[in-house]
């Protein structure tokens, strides 16, 4: 099967990570995968994982514009010579273009909703939800039913998935020591950490403000922040103002997170308001990290409450976050028990194989089973 994914860009972020992971797994199963986007820092990774890239002017938030119309015409022309079996849209601009291409080239399309969006006239007049719509969590499914009146029989609930194997495997002591040394983390540090884009919507400032009360209870506590973004300089200043700059370690973006996660005694998940899920949450759970999550967006709350693990705290409440982190640090037995349960839940419910099985079923449904499916390669 030839599959064309449409997304605004291929820069670092949860949507891009999900598309790349899905594309890699589909390619391994024998499908031909193409990604149309405005490009970005992860183009090379997409190519290395077997996905072709079609440049298209989709990097905009204005879905009805000459730029988007031009991108749609360009892709329609290319599809005339290089047809595909199914279109899979991942962002609002991608959904609009997919709807146009579906009509122009008579190709079925599906739309994944990766989060929560405010209803506006454009979405009401032209919802672009596809022949079938994929919701990545139950709260997103409810959002589609309630706010966009999508018929329940047209929604498929397919949570994100990861390959848990790298996170379940023990991390080499040399790799841990190398990262500790690079970051200046003491060997006896009680590390509270997160993996997040450093943007205002993630609320990393709440985590930094929680560190002083954490350190009053646990003087050995250190904060490890993995990720980068436009808010980093401001967060570094905030750590200085809070008097904890020496105890906050900014790792920047890392090619993979398993070593950093292995150093953390508590993982703090910081979802954005519009975020419907969170791959870093699954990676931390698969790594056996005890979880504290901010109750924002709904996706993380659903995952943790369904699993019966983790602690949820209100947004913008550093004291509550600190109290939850200290409880985990001081109660190792409970933390260990919950971490083991979380790891099992990921392996049972949130694997990339399960996600791809369900996505393939959607493709088969919208194509009427007419497209050829690839041979599943060993993973």
Fold and architecture overview:
By secondary structure, this protein is an alpha/beta fold. It has two domains: 2-161 and 351-366, 3-Layer(aba) Sandwich (Rossmann fold); 165-349, Rossmann fold (3-Layer(aba) Sandwich), CATH 3.40.50. The chain contains 16 helices and 13 strands. The strands form two sheets. Strands 3-2-1-4-5-6-7 form a seven-stranded parallel beta sheet, sandwiched between helices. The protein has a six-stranded parallel beta sheet with strand order 10-9-8-11-12-13, with helices on both faces. Helix 2 (43-48) links the parallel strand 2 (32-37) and strand 3 (52-55). The longest helix has 18 residues, at 332-349.
Tags for this entry?
Rossmann fold; single chain; elongated; 13 strands; alpha/beta; disordered C terminus; 7-stranded parallel β-sheet
